[in-house]
Specification:
The chain is an alpha+beta fold. Among the domains are: 79-196, 2-Layer Sandwich (Tetrahydropterin Synthase, Chain A), CATH 3.30.479.30; 198-248. Helix content is 48%, strand content 20%. It is built from seven helices and ten strands. The protein has helices spanning 3-32, 112-118, 134-149, 154-157, 161-180, 198-248, 251-266; strands at 35-38, 42-48, 51-52, 60-63, 69-75, 79-86, 98-107, 124-126, 129-131, 184-195. The protein has a three-stranded antiparallel sheet. Strands 6-7-10 form a three-stranded antiparallel sheet, covered by helices on one side. Strands 1-4 form a two-stranded antiparallel sheet. It is rod-shaped.
Length: 298
């Protein structure tokens, strides 16, 4: 064989090898392009020549037309959506310094294909799966947060975090149901940070301090009331005792006491006692000093 013949056969064999490689690659592409695997907790949605198949494919092995059909894997799990650095206004028209909220939602597996068609540009691509209607939930969640914050005074917000989370969840759920029925469900809302303006924080501290002072004054008032009640009861007891004594004083008892007193006066030298003749209603005059110039003899 001449060198030309050898060269020709070598080129021919090289061409066959390249063709085999190309055909093998095409076969592999055809093979692997004809199926896809959907992970647990996800659903698959197919689009063929621009048309979306509205029947969702469940987790596991799924087949499709190679090259012509594109498969999209959407998450049907709970999705966390963060709203950070919000500055909504409270009911008293004061803005918060910082508000961070996380909304947890999930899409109904049977509604994901419809959501993909309706909100073509609202899905969020994430590692492992596409997050359905993410942009819609984000927009409505932000609106619900601002709406519910506007119902509460800034000084009260720090005491109403649980109630605020519930009201945001309820408001957001109603917003989404008005749009898409039960396709999207809000499982929970968490207020991660709620920081009011520094001037509001100072007002909160003053309000707490004033409340403590008010409570202390109220305690003082209660103590004063109790002391007054005790004095009233003591006075009432004295009055009742005097009433009992007065009721027990008879003319005979008073005469007996007078006689005892007169006897005592008689035993003290240098005393002067003036008595009316009838012994009724008289005044007893006692001079605790001797008469001037008296030496004991009258």
């Amino acid at each position: 064989m001449t060198n030309n013949e050898l060269g020709f056969h070598g080129q021919k064999r090289a061409g066959w090898a390249i063709s085999g490689i190309v055909l093998g690659a095409l076969a592999l592409s055809f093979l692997f392009g004809s199926f896809y695997i959907v992970d647990t907790g996800h659903v698959g949605v197919e689009r063929t020549l621009g048309k979306v198949d509205l029947t969702e494919n469940r987790p596991g092995l799924n087949f499709k037309l190679p090259f012509l059909t594109q498969a999209y894997e959407f998450s049907a799990k709970e999705i966390a959506l963060d709203l950070d650095d919000l500055k909504p206004k409270a009911a008293d028209n004061l803005s918060l310094q910082d508000l961070d909220v996380t909304v947890y939602y999930n899409a109904s597996p049977d509604a994901i294909a419809d959501l993909m068609v309706k909100y073509a540009n609202a899905s969020q691509y994430a590692p492992g799966a596409i997050l359905p209607a993410y942009g819609i939930v984000y927009r409505e969640a932000r609106g619900a947060v601002y709406e519910e914050i506007a119902k509460i005074d800034s000084l009260e917000l720090h005491k109403m975090r649980d109630a605020l989370q519930t009201s945001i969840q309820d408001s957001l759920q109603l917003r989404l149901e008005d749009k898409d029925g039960d396709a999207l469900q809000i499982s929970r809302v968490v207020v991660r940070a709620l920081n009011t303006d520094p001037s509001i924080e100072e007002s909160i501290r003053e309000a707490v301090a004033n409340q403590k002072k008010l409570e202390a004054k109220q305690i003082s008032v209660d103590i004063a009331k109790k002391d007054a009640e005790i004095e009233i009861e003591r006075a009432r007891g004295i009055a009742q005792a005097n009433s009992i004594i007065n009721d027990s004083l008879t003319a005979q008892y008073l005469q007996h006491e007078i006689n005892v007193a007169l006897q005592s006066f008689a035993e003290n030298e240098g005393q002067l006692v003036v008595m009316p003749a009838n012994m009724q209603g008289f005044d007893v005059i006692l001079d605790t000093q001797r008469f001037p110039g008296s030496d004991g003899n009258q």
